[in-house]
Amino acid sequence: MQHSSAAVRWRSAALLSSIVGAAASTYLLVEYVTGQPGLCLTGSGCDVVRASAFAYPLGIPMPLIGLVFYLAAIWIQLRMLDARSIAGLRVETALLTLAIVGATASIVLTAIEAFVIEAFCSWCLVQAAASLALLLAAVMLRRAPVDATEAHSSRTRHQAARILEGERASLLRTLRAGAGAAVLAVAALLVMGAANGAPISSPSPSSLAPAGSPRIGSGAVEVVEFADFQCPGCAALAPILADLAASDEMTLVSRYFPLDSIHPNADRSARAAAAADQQGSFWPMSAALYARQDAWKDLPGGDADAFFLAMADELGLDTGRWQASYQSPETAAAVDLDRQAASAMGLSSTPTLFIGGTQYTGPLSAEGIRAAIAAAQ
């Protein structure tokens, strides 16, 4: 079976698309399994998506499903030179069928990120782009002309064998080059992510959860969260932690870690919660800040101050006392003390959890955190 040059080009495009998708899936899978802080091109969107209920369908990490899909696409493409059909389907048709399923799933998942989670994971977007590129290549490959020539002589059979061998060699070169580049890219991303997020030192229990830090729940295991009230991932995790603390499965300790470089109102919101803590209302203010995050996150400074003051009033706080505390150097120093502690431990992202004194690197789900609590007892 002699393929046209167009088919060869589209086969290479399909293979490269599959390799890119597999690389992105591998990188995400390592992040999901280890909990290592990763490099996200969409701010904190990767953490928000990973903390959502859609990240572990049936308990399976979503990147693992993506990796299996792209490896299956690569396998089908490698079979093209040696087989005319797979499970009764022409090989090109089998690839197209798989590509349609993958592209449809990517479109649905991207829509969920946009309209349900309201955050984007940059590597999920890379996977989606790879699936669409694979679909385009599969469509064009299915339409590309194929010259099925019967070999009536030893010469024509020899020519056909040479053509097939050339196509096989070209495909294997593409596979080796693409796979090599993908391995290097994933390794570099993991190294940079580890360097960016690895703790510098192990904190002592007293320094990790100072007596004055807000806490709730009466569980035997302390879970310390370094949080940024403007972080979408923290907002997604907040109700999970609140439920675990309310059921006394743990004692939750909150530490301030405002990431001012990416969240302009992070410091203001931390001071708003710290000022509420002076009146014993840290947790109601914390819940309100997360619930209304979209309403205040982009406000200019003065408007944000007024918004937080109105929230204090709605919570029934003494607004005069709250405002004095909100603006006081002592409150700013308390927030900065937590920020310095986080920096001293090498932390760079939120939410960061310590369970029983050990930094937690598992999935940000109730099941994952509950399992870590059980292991720490």
Could you describe the 3D structure shown?
The chain is of the alpha+beta class and 377 residues long. It has 2 domains: 2-197, VKOR domain (de novo design (two linked rop proteins)); 205-376, Glutaredoxin. The protein has 15 helices and 9 strands. It has helices spanning 5-34, 45-51, 62-79, 91-117, 122-143, 154-197, 205-208, 232-246, 266-277, 282-291, 293-296, 301-314, 319-326, 329-344, 366-376, and strands at 2-3, 85-86, 89-90, 146-147, 215-216, 222-227, 251-256, 352-355, 358-359. It has a 5-stranded mixed sheet with strand order 5-7-6-8-9. The chain has a two-stranded antiparallel sheet with strand order 1-4. Strand 8 (352-355) and strand 9 form a beta hairpin. Helix 1 (5-34) runs parallel beside helix 6 (154-197) and helix 9 (266-277) packs antiparallel against helix 10. The radius of gyration is 27 Å and the shape is elongated. The termini are far apart. The model is unreliable at 147-155 and 197-201 (pLDDT under 50).
Strand order of the largest sheet: 5-7-6-8-9
Terminus-to-terminus distance? 65 Å
Low-pLDDT windows of residues = 147-155, 197-201
CATH architecture group name of the largest domain: Up-down Bundle
Largest sheet, in brief, is: 5 strands, mixed
- Shape designation: elongated
Mean pLDDT: 86
Counting helices, strands and paired strands, the structural category is alpha+beta
- Helix segment tally: 15
